[in-house]
Amino acid sequence: HLQESESENKLDGETASDSESKSEFGGSAPVPTSDDTPEVLNRALSNLSSRWKNWWVRGILTLAMITFFFIIIYLGPMVLMMIVMCVQIKCFHEIITIGYNVYHSYDLPWFRTLSWYFLLCVNYFFYGETVTDYFFTLVQREEPLRILSKYHRFISFALYLTGFCMFVLSLVKKHYRLQFYMFGWTHVTLLIVVTQSHLIIHNLFEGMIWFIVPISCVICNDIMAYMFGFFFGRTPLIKLSPKKTWEGFIGGFFATVLFGLLLSYVMSGYRCFTCPVEFNNDTNSFTVDCEPSELFQLQEYKIPVVLQSMLGWKTVRMYPFQIHSIALSTFASLIGPFGGFFASGFKRAFKIKDFANTIPGHGGIMDRFDCQYLMATFVNVYIASFIRGPNPSKLIQQFLTLRPDQQLHIFNTLKAHLVDKGMLGGLEDA
C-alpha cells in the first residue's frame, strides 16, 4: 500500500511543498467532476464499453461544436469578436471558480468581486486600444469616443489603481499570504486568458483567414491526435497526460500540415476571408472588401529536383499563404499541445478532472481552449514579424488629425525626401 500511494503521488507530481500549499489553502482540493453525459446519449450508448462510449460522446459533441463554429464564421467578424469575448469570460470564470472554492472556506472579503473588477479593467484597456487602432476614423468622428481615446490609458490606469486600493483595504490579519496568493492567481489568469483572447481579436482584424486557419489547425490536431492515439497508440508521450501517445502526436502532425495546406488553398480564393476588417465612413458599417495582397494570389513555384521524379511535376501553382500555413500548422502540432500539457499539470495540481463540466465528454470551455491561447500568441507574433508592414491608410488618417502647421511640416519633409531620391522629379517630368 505504501508503494502504491508513493507511485500515485509521483504520478500527480505532488511533493511536500504541495501538501503545505494545500494546508495553507484550507484543506482538501476540489473533487473531480461527475459524469455529465446527457441522458439521451447514456441510454443510446449503454451497451458499449466505457472506452467506446467516451469515443462516441466526444465524437458527437465535436461534430456539434464544429457545426457551431461554421455558423459563427458565416455570421461575420463582429459576431466572432463577441463569441471570443464570451469564451474569454467563461474561461476566466472557470479558473477563478477553482480558486474561489478554496478561498471561500475562509470567508474573506471581496475576492470574487475584485477578480471580476480586474477583468473589467483589463478588457476596457484592451478593447479601447483595439478600437482606437483599427477604427481610428470612427473614433475621431465621435466627440465622446475622441475624448475617451485621448485619455484612454490614464482612465485605464485609474480604474486599475482603484482595484489595487480595494485589495489593500481588504487584507485581513493572519491571512495575508493567502490573500496575496489569490491576488497573484487573478493576475496570472488575466495574463493567460484575457491578454491572449485579445490577440485572437487582433488576428481576426488582419483577415478572417488568420483567425480561422490557426484555430482549425489546433482543432484538427486535437481530433487527429486522438484518432491516431485511439487506434494505434502504444507508446506514452508525457506523464502529465498518460493517455497521450507518440503515435497520436506524430500522426496528428502530418494530418494537420496536410489539412492546413488544403484549407489555406480553399480560403485564399475568397476576399471575405483574406481582407482585413475596416470601417467604411460612407456606409457607417464594417466591411471586409479589398484587392487581395500578394499573399493571396496564385504563384508558380519550382519543385526541388529530388521530388520532381517522384511527383512527375516540375512546377506547382499555390498561394504564398499556403507556405505560411505550414509554419502555423507545424506550431499547432508540435508546440500547441504543450498548452494542453500545461493545463493537465494545473488540473493535476488541484486534483480535478476538468476545469468545468460545460461540454459533456470534453470538460469546460478552458479544456477546449488551452492550446488555442498559445496558438493565438504565436500567430500574432508571426504576423508582426513576417507579414504586417506599415499601413498607409492608418498613417493618412493620423496625418489628417494633426494641426495644419504639423501637416505642412510633414509634407515638406516628405517632399524633400522624395526629391533627394529622384522620385518627385521623375513624377513632375512625367
TrEMBL record:
Name of the protein this chain belongs to: Phosphatidate cytidylyltransferase
Region described as Disordered: spans on this chain: 1-38
Membrane topology: Multi-pass membrane protein
Catalytic function, reaction form: 1,2-di-(9Z-octadecenoyl)-sn-glycero-3-phosphate + CTP + H(+) = 1,2-di-(9Z-octadecenoyl)-sn-glycero-3-cytidine-5'-diphosphate + diphosphate; 1-octadecanoyl-2-(4Z,7Z,10Z,13Z,16Z,19Z-docosahexaenoyl)-sn-glycero-3-phosphate + CTP + H(+) = 1-octadecanoyl-2-(4Z,7Z,10Z,13Z,16Z,19Z-docosahexaenoyl)-sn-glycero-3-cytidine-5'-diphosphate + diphosphate; a 1,2-diacyl-sn-glycero-3-phosphate + CTP + H(+) = a CDP-1,2-diacyl-sn-glycerol + diphosphate; 1-octadecanoyl-2-(9Z-octadecenoyl)-sn-glycero-3-phosphate + CTP + H(+) = 1-octadecanoyl-2-(9Z-octadecenoyl)-sn-glycero-3-cytidine-5'-diphosphate + diphosphate
Enzymatic class: transferase
This enzyme's EC code(s): 2.7.7.41
CC annotations in GO: endoplasmic reticulum membrane
Pathway of action: Lipid metabolism; Phospholipid metabolism; CDP-diacylglycerol biosynthesis; CDP-diacylglycerol from sn-glycerol 3-phosphate: step 3/3
